[in-house]
Write a structure and sequence with these properties.
Blueprint: H1 2-30, H2 43-61, H3 80-88, H4 99-105, E1 112-113, H5 118-127, E2 138-139, H6 175-181, H7 189-192, H8 207-216, E3 223-227, H9 233-239, E4 244-248, H10 256-262, E5 267-268, E6 283-288, H11 298-311, E7 312-326, H12 327-339, E8 344-352, H13 356-361, E9 363-371
Parallel strand pairs: 1-2, 3-4, 3-6, 4-5, 6-7
Antiparallel strand pairs: 7-9, 8-9
Helix pairs in contact: 1-2, 4-5
């Protein structure tokens, strides 16, 4: 502030001096008995005017000196992590890489309903690292008859088809179709109602056991995040234990977000590479669901793990639920990456992945419950 005030004072004095010299020259010209003949400006006056102009020009370009100037100071380089994150994370800088998708997304008739492909195009852009701005001057279509209230039981007897705009989904036009066509995606309530409640193998961690572990450690679980939680079954079950869990989920051509909302829960439509939209150290539990697995690029996975660490409070829990990878990668890559967090291992169970893909690629499942240290 002191430098700025000094600079303003010098500029003011310079302008005053310039005006005085100009008036002096003008008055001497007016008092001349021979107006037709123009008097030359004295050399000393021109010299003073040029000096003042040069001073003003120099001062206006001058920048305040650094506190600790160094003769070898160079322009700071952009951190490599930031450059890498700009390609992985869902920020606007990635949008210019996909002009074809953006062109489709922004093609619509103003002041009418938005095209039905809005959600699918937006999701494609998000997955490519571009969160598009909302469309201007078109209106989103919504289901015509929403329910009058949210269900007290997040496991209703059935989901109402009228709560979904089915035209945007190519394969099925009803929940009964989804339950038959994709039985493992969370739309079959007869299957979902038993999840997270039974213990069949070491890879299972039933919710009663999870809560008992926390109670034994004199810890509490009140708030949680379910990363990649599909239709929100985990959040639905935790709601019955008076625990609030928000679910991050993408649709992938099925109405995951709509179902989470229909259960009276909160869906967050964000991809795995996006910064979790909650503040630091405010949640007690983060569950990494089946979507977090070896297909995620390693660097993106590291960003995810440390963002989870950011939102977890001290003493909170990180739960890897059936994380799958190659057996060799688990011991040499993912295990050491998880170990860098420095969390306490409450549970660490590894079992073979017995489906065709698992047998072909020598894959295993990892279920791990880790507790963040209270202080570091």
């Amino acid at each position: 502030m002191g430098f700025s005030m000094g600079l303003n004072l010098v500029l003011l004095l310079a302008m005053v001096a310039t005006n005085i010299l100009s008036l002096y020259h003008l008055s001497s010209t007016l008092q001349s008995p021979k107006p037709p003949t123009q008097q030359p400006v004295p050399d000393h006056l021109l010299h003073q005017l040029n000096t003042i102009r040069a001073t003003i020009s120099h001062l206006t370009r001058h920048q305040p000196p650094s506190i600790n100037p160094s003769p070898t100071t160079t322009k700071p380089s952009i951190p490599q992590d930031l450059l890498l994150y700009s390609h992985l994370s869902s920020i606007a800088s990635a949008c210019h890489n996909h002009p074809d998708l953006l062109h489709k997304y922004m093609t619509y008739t103003p002041y009418s309903l938005c095209p039905l492909d809005s959600d699918l195009l937006a999701e494609s852009l998000i997955l490519h690292g571009c969160h598009p701005l909302p469309r201007r001057r078109c209106f989103s279509k919504t289901p015509p008859k929403p329910p009058s209230s949210l269900p007290h039981n997040p496991f209703p007897s059935s989901f109402l088809d009228s709560n979904v705009i089915w035209n945007k989904y190519p394969s099925c036009k009803s929940f009964s179709c989804l339950a038959k066509q994709s039985p493992g995606l969370g739309f079959d309530l007869n299957t979902e109602i038993s999840k997270f409640m039974t213990y069949k193998t070491e890879l299972d961690l039933p919710i009663p056991q999870l809560l008992q572990v926390a109670k034994s450690a004199n810890s509490v679980i009140r708030l949680g995040i379910d990363i990649g939680g599909a239709t929100g079954t985990f959040a639905a079950r935790m709601k019955q234990y008076n625990v609030t869990v928000v679910t991050t989920t993408m649709n992938f051509n099925v109405p995951n977000n709509e179902v989470v909302a229909m259960r009276g829960l909160v869906p967050l439509h964000v991809p795995l590479q996006q910064r979790l939209p909650v503040f630091d150290g405010v949640v007690d539990l983060v569950r990494c669901a089946h979507a977090v697995n070896r297909w995620i690029p390693l660097t993106m996975m590291e960003f995810l793990f440390y963002d989870v660490d950011r939102v977890l409070r001290g003493g909170g829990y990180l739960w890897f639920d059936h994380f799958f990878s190659r057996r060799m990668d688990l011991s040499k890559v993912f295990g050491p990456l998880i170990g860098k967090l420095g969390y306490k291992k409450v549970k660490w169970a590894v079992g073979n992945k017995t489906d065709s893909s698992g047998l072909k690629n020598e894959e295993v499942y990892l279920t791990a419950l880790l507790q963040k240290p209270v202080s570091k």
